[in-house]
Each structure stands twice: as structure tokens, then as C-alpha cells.
Amino acid sequence: MPASAEPATSGSSTIVLFHSVYGMRPAVHAGADRLRAAGHEVIVPDLFGGRTADSAEDGMVIKEEIGKDELLRRAVAAVAPYADRGLIYAGFSFGAAVAQNLALGDEKARGLLLLHGTSDIADGASADDLPVQLHIADPDPYEPHDWLTAWYLRMRRAGADVEVFRYPGAGHLFTDPDLPDHDAEAAQSAWKVALAFLADLPERD
Fold it and tell me: Are 55 and 172 contacting, i.e. CB atoms less than 8 angstroms apart?
């Protein structure tokens, strides 16, 4: 599965960044470049095999055509060569859900950065002291308040150390400047907080 990465610098973290249902849009590459500029190595798997969507609805069609099992297989295959590094998982919306699923299955995961999305949490999931940060619109049509409250409680029950940052009035994918959802102030704030979170992540045993 295609993935792009920059050479690691001394002391840098390795971040896997997953795209939304829009596919590998310019905003995904811009986000990866922002992380690289902060000194991190970034892997950006293309789970849609080069396909992109002009709307969320079109993206959902692509997602359904590929299928949940195949998307998960592609995600696992993309991170496998780097699994011994203690990865930081990150993603946008659908990609955040993918990132969460992989992080909760990786006992070496160093952190989880969720932008615009979450995923269900299996009973018995364990995320002992895993640092997790979520940035979400408020309200978000895909992440209603009741869901987020339940998600937060289940993540805490699994042992994760969770922070949630809400952005009133922002659109769902507010970090993408090419979408109507974009909110420049919210995006700037989210990236500032996220970069500080990533810089402060401790090493995992």
C-alpha cells in the first residue's frame, strides 16, 4: 500500500496520519508537512489507492466499495514496517477512527491524535496510560454529544489519558481550507494545541 514518509531526524517521533473519506486531499499533505516541520517523521497511507472524492457522500461510496475489512488490512499493512518504533497514530474524521482502532491494538503506541472523529471501543479494550487528544466541532453532525460522552467514558475506562477540545460553530472538517467546513481560527488553534501535545509525548516502555 503506497505511503509517503520523510527520513527520520534524531529524536523525532514517527506519526502515521490517515486521511478522511475524501481521500488524499491537499489538506492531508499540508497536515503531514506541518508535522514534519515540527521535526516528526510522517507516514501517510493512501487507503483509497489514489481515489479521491468531491463530497462526503462520494467518499462514503468509495469506502463502502472497498469494504471495512480491506481498509483495515491496508492500514495494518501500511504501519507494519514501522511497528517496532512506538508509533503515534493520527487521522482526520474516518482516518481518526482508523487511527484509534490501530492505536488500541498496539501496546507500543505512544499517542493518539484524533481530528474530527472517533470510533467505537470494544469491550475489554486496553489503552493503559495512552495519551489521547481529540479535536472536534461543537456541535458535530457525525459526533453527537451523547456519543462523545459515552466515547470519553469508555476510553477512560480502557485506561487512556484523554483530552477533548471542542470548537463551537466550526464545521466538521474545519482544518481543511478547501472545504466549506473550514474555520481558520479553529484550525489554527487545533494545530497549535496538537503540536504541543505531540512534542510532550513521553516514550513508552
Answer: no
Do residues 2 and 77 lie in contact, with contact meaning Cβ atoms separated by under 8 Å? Answer: no
The string of DSSP letters for 14-79 reads EEEEE-BTTBS-HHHHHHHHHHHHTT-EEEEE-TTTT---SSHHHHHHHHHHH-HHHHHHHHHHHH
pLDDT tens, 56-108? 999 999 999 999 999 999 999 999 999 888 999 999 999 999 999 999 999 99
**Prediction pTM value:** 0.93
The residues spanned by each domain of the chain are 3-199
* 40 touches 5 (CB < 8 A): no
Closest CA to 201 of 88, 35, 38: 88
Q: Class for domain 3-199, per CATH?
A: alpha beta
